[in-house]
């Protein structure tokens, strides 16, 4: 069996174990943890941390000589990721201050779950593992690596509505969002913190302002979100040109990386 085939088989098996472990055990772990610690925020973190174990084991089997923090891209500069994400999402907070009111009451634990916990763990699962490991350590190009992970990322957000039109909007927006987060992660030299903080700030502003009940949003909500995406893209391009850093994602490696890559 070739190394490439073995790599993909282990990757698929490891993700499958994670997927079904998460599907059947996440809620039970969360419920038990909440009953013991009396905190739904802590229970959310515990459930994510435990169900993440198959992913950690999988990357260690695939690449045993590398450290977990390196494999999950958590060894990158946190400060750089924070600054880029904060500056890039300023259009959202500025626009929302003008067009929307702050919510009247904040549930701190729910806010933590929907911003800090979700952003951190979702970026590890989808961008770092499901997309990043494939793109970094196989011959798959950007679009080939990002497609399945983005489909799954979009699918897990469909709980937000029962309306067919809204479901289509939610799926499309979250799929595009996943591709964007992956692009940011890769083009900032595999700095997962950038994607985590962009995810965090976008969720935060969406949560603390009366924008929409789900991610499909509305005219002004989406206008300022798109403006933030454009600003982030400009900042990433500026950073790379200033540091004379080549772009990772080019037309040559959209599907399969060329040998010189």
Q: How many strands, what sense, and barrel or not for the largest sheet?
A: none
Helix and strand sequence: HHHHHHHHHHH
Helix content: over 70%
What form results from the Cα inertia axes?
Answer: globular
Please tally the β strands and state the result. Answer: 0
Please give the radius of gyration in angstroms.
19 Å
Keywords: Membrane, Transmembrane, Transmembrane helix
GO molecular function, one term: endopeptidase activity
Transmembrane segments: 7-29, 41-63, 83-104, 124-154, 166-186, 192-211, 223-239
Organism: Chryseobacterium phosphatilyticum
Using brief descriptors, characterize the structure shown.
261 residues, mainly alpha, 2 domains, 11 helices, 73% helix, globular
What does this structure look like?
GO terms for molecular function: endopeptidase activity. InterPro entries: Rce1/LyrA-like_dom (IPR003675). Keywords: Membrane, Transmembrane, Transmembrane helix. This is CAAX prenyl protease 2/Lysostaphin resistance protein A-like domain-containing protein. The chain is mainly α and about 260 residues long. The protein folds into two domains: about 1-65; about 75-255, no CATH class. About 75% of the residues lie in helices and about 0% in strands. The protein is built from eleven helices and no strands. It has helices spanning about 5-35, 40-50, 55-60, 70, 80-90, 90-100, 110-135, 140-155, 165-185, 190-210, 220-240. Helix 8 (about 140-155) packs across helix 9 (about 165-185). It is globular, with a radius of gyration of 19 Å. The protein starts with a helix and ends in a 19-residue tail after the last helix.
